[in-house]
């Protein structure tokens, strides 16, 4: 695998070891890594990415017992597998807990142990009620969980906060109805993101926000996500430049540091071709009656980057679904008839005898569409089946050493209560994206401490640079990726509008 090629760049990246000294903690005065808390942590994708960037995780708050079991297994108990770990405090039991209960039951401990001693609060409040791909209900009780996030921010008072969600959080509920008929007088409609922004500003934070495309940071998946960063500059500096501009500037260097091509996206074939069912299967006592897959010889730099070891091995959670013959035949037909990498709508799907709202037959030479918690939304590019949890994890940039826990799927009334493996992987922030943002935040924190910042940007609206025309030309695949004959180039603006890809120079 190729190594970093841009040694003279201004923003220096490096592989972070567990005991690396990154900078001086402004609260404690000790030489230590900057510290963060992760709220609504899920299975730990954002925590993993931040720790790979040099942050030290203190604790992670997650309500789901299944998701927390995965987080605990990897980021608390996973030291023997070479994963970074959370420095869990003695006063908090290592168990699943909601953010509301965390505040209610441990408010005094939070004040005594965390106030002024944490550099970042990160997290992604549940997004199901905001998602344009879901039910999008203003009555979803999870829509107001960001208030609990702000409660922790007020108790801890960190210099920076990071919030992640879906793009739908920036769109007010009912906007589509306003266009069709007059709206009754009352409280003006406003997106939830604006309410969160006001809440942070009222607590002394300068707020920046942007739509970020994971594919631009080495993730083989489009995955546009909304991020909000709050910076409390009082006592640190007079101002701070837009951190998302910094993120854009380090994109190329970050991808090169990973040994990946920066002139094009990582395709699905590059990410998961070593995990095909055709490569071989075996029986696993974890799930009798199911075939599990193996990882064979890695063909690409991306696969080498996430592989557990050299040679053939049996990756965790690589269990193939047992499709009925009727379903398999439907998948075969769809793979022959449907355009690749394009959403098949509900009307067309009815012709195939399914009531699903959308299905995408993957294009092997493009990044995946955004993964969801429904595994049958996306079909494999060369085999008539859905993806496995391990393939989900690869497309989310989890290393193969990261192992998932709990049941694989759920259904019916349990979908709202349980977080099985597919949901854990599908809901996560890709660790590569978390690492890129974490690297930018380390740099931002250092500049704040050095009192050497440019004037604060006046723009706090959602970054609209996604309409900027791309200037990076398409180039052949780099040496070492010969199997990927038609790897996806970074698309131009016209192609981006047609296929849903972001321009190269945007997030």
CATH architecture of the domain at 23-179 and 186-263 and 430-449: 3-Layer(aba) Sandwich
Helix segment tally: 15
Structural class by helix and strand composition: alpha/beta
The helix fraction, in percent, is: 25-40%
Order of helices and strands: EEEHEHHEHEHHEEHHEEHHEHEEHHHH
Question: What is the topology, as strand order, of the major beta sheet?
Answer: 4-3-5-6-8-7
Overall geometry: globular
Mean pLDDT, to the nearest integer, reads 81
Tell me the major beta sheet: 6 strands, mixed
- First-residue to last-residue Cα separation: 26 Å
Number of strands: 13
User: Looking at CATH, which topology of the domain at 23-179 and 186-263 and 430-449 would you report?
Assistant: Rossmann fold
Segments where pLDDT lies below 50 for 5+ residues?
Answer: 1-10, 14-30, 176-180, 452-457, 464-506
The first-level CATH class of the domain at 23-179 and 186-263 and 430-449 is given as Alpha Beta
* Rg computed from alpha carbons, rounded to a whole number of angstroms: 22 Å
CATH homologous superfamily classification of the domain at 23-179 and 186-263 and 430-449: Vaccinia Virus protein VP39
Report on this model:
The protein has a 6-stranded mixed β-sheet with strand order 4-3-5-6-8-7, sandwiched between helices. Strands 11-12-13 form a 3-stranded mixed β-sheet. Strands 1-2 form a two-stranded antiparallel ribbon. Helices cover 29% and strands 11% of the residues. Among the domains are: 23-179 and 186-263 and 430-449, 3-Layer(aba) Sandwich (Rossmann fold), CATH 3.40.50; 328-387, no CATH class. Strand 3 (35-39), helix 1 (45-52) and strand 4 (56-61) form a beta-alpha-beta unit. Helix 1 crosses helix 14. It has 507 residues and is of the alpha/beta class.
């Amino acid at each position: 695998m190729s190594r970093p090629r841009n040694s003279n760049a201004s923003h220096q990246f490096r592989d972070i070891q567990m005991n690396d000294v990154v900078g001086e903690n402004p609260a404690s005065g000790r030489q230590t890594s900057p510290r963060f808390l992760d709220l609504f942590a899920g299975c730990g994708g954002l925590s993993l990415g931040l720790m790979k960037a040099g942050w030290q995780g203190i604790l992670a708050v997650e309500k789901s017992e299944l998701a927390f079991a995965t987080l605990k297994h990897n980021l608390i108990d996973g030291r023997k597998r070479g994963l970074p770990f959370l420095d869990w405090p003695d006063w908090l039991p290592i168990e699943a807990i909601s953010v509301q209960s965390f505040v209610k039951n441990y408010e005094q401990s939070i004040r005594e142990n965390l106030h002024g001693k944490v550099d970042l609060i990160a997290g992604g409040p549940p997004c199901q009620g905001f998602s344009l791909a879901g039910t999008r209900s203003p009555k979803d009780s999870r829509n107001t969980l960001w208030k609990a996030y702000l409660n922790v921010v007020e108790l801890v008072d960190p210099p920076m906060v990071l919030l992640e969600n879906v793009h739908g959080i920036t769109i007010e509920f009912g906007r589509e109805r306003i266009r069709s008929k007059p709206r009754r007088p009352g409280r003006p409609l406003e997106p939830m993101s604006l309410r969160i922004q006001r809440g942070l500003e009222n607590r002394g934070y300068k707020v920046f926000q942007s739509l970020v495309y994971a594919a631009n940071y080495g993730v083989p998946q489009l995955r546009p996500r909304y991020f909000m960063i709050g910076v409390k500059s009082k006592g640190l500096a007079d101002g701070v430049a837009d951190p998302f501009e910094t993120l854009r500037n380090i994109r190329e260097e970050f991808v090169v540091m990973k040994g990946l091509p920066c002139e094009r996206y990582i395709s699905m074939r590059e990410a998961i071709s070593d995990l095909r069912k055709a490569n071989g299967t075996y029986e696993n006592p974890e799930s009798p009656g199911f075939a599990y897959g193996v990882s064979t010889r890695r063909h690409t730099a991306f696969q080498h980057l996430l592989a557990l070891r050299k040679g053939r091995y049996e990756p965790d959670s690589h269990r193939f679904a047992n499709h009925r013959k009727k379903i398999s035949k439907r998948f075969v037909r769809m793979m022959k008839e449907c355009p690749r990498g394009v959403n098949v709508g509900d009307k067309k799907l009815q012709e195939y005898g399914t009531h699903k709202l959308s299905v995408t037959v993957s294009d092997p030479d493009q990044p995946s569409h955004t993964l969801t918690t429904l595994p049958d939304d996306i079909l494999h590019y060369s085999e008539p089946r859905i993806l496995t949890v391990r393939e989900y994890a690869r497309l989310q940039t989890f290393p193969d050493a990261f192992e998932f826990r709990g049941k694989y799927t759920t259904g019916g009334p349990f979908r709202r209560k349980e977080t099985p493996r597919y949901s854990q992987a599908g809901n996560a922030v890709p660790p590569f994206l978390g690492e890129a943002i974490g690297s930018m935040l380390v740099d931002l924190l250092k500049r704040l401490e050095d009192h050497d910042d440019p004037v604060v940007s006046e723009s706090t609206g959602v970054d609209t640079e996604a309409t900027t025309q791309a200037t990076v030309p398409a180039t052949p695949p780099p040496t070492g990726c010969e199997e990927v004959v038609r790897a996806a180039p970074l698309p131009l603006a016209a192609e981006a509008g047609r296929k849903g890809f972001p321009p190269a120079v945007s997030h």
